[in-house]
Amino acid sequence: MAGPLARGYEPGMSARTIIALGALLVMAIGSVSFFSDRAARMAQGLSVRADAALSRQDLGVVEVDFASSTGSPSRHPLLSGGEDLSDEERTRAAQIVASIPGVGGVSWVDGTVNAAGSEPTYEPLHCQEDVDGLLRTRTIRFQEASTALVPASRMLLDEVAEALEPCSGAIIAVTGHTDKSGNEADNVALSMDRARVVREALVRRGIPRDSLRARGYGSSRPVASLTAEDPANRRIEFSVIRMEPLTPTPVDTPGPR
């Protein structure tokens, strides 16, 4: 039987191959380490700039995490904290972070609002004005201590849905309020349940579910001209927060809160 030399085998060929492969492996590991360190420095730099920008706007309570769901450095930060901020302030915080060079899509951990760096936003003020006009002399009402809508309010919701329809893609807050009568914990729960009922009613009327946010504040935010005990504080309010760009963004539109 012919041996390795008879078949043209060259002594040392395997060793040279192994050495070459080993060198490539070392280079690959070094490259991964280099880019990993570079990504970490990038995320740290963006985090410092984001914290500074938010602090300058008195939004320092907002925390910014430049990391993916697996913990890897990311240009797409997740915002948290600031639970007591208004929807407008939370939107402004997201837009401040998104305006920092190098930042990609921005979203809140609870999925309330998002913003995308270098993407246009649109303020659909006509929708807000149309809804405000509908509710200027009428109120969405419920049966006493109940989440059941009165018949007239169902018809009013038909008009509200029609006014909101042109703002497809907007973030729309549906907020429930009560007066100060009764236990406040119960008031908050009732106002939230009523906001959810209105949200579902709008979904049935063709408004996309992922555009709607339901919140309940109980009696904590009375109408400016009324005392907290006034029954006229029992109301549903709508806020068209912002219009999402029609072009795709790096962040998916968040789901209902």
Short recap of the structure:
The chain is an alpha/beta fold and 257 residues long. It contains five helices and seven strands.
What does this structure look like?
This protein has helices spanning 13-56, 87-98, 125-135, 151-164, 184-204, and strands at residues 63-67, 73-80, 105-108, 114-116, 170-177, 212-216, 235-243. By secondary structure, the protein is an alpha/beta fold. Strands 1-2-3-4 form a four-stranded mixed beta sheet, covered by helices on one side. The protein has a three-stranded mixed beta sheet with strand order 6-5-7. A hairpin with a 5-residue loop joins strand 1 and strand 2. The chain is elongated and about 85 Å long. The termini are far apart.
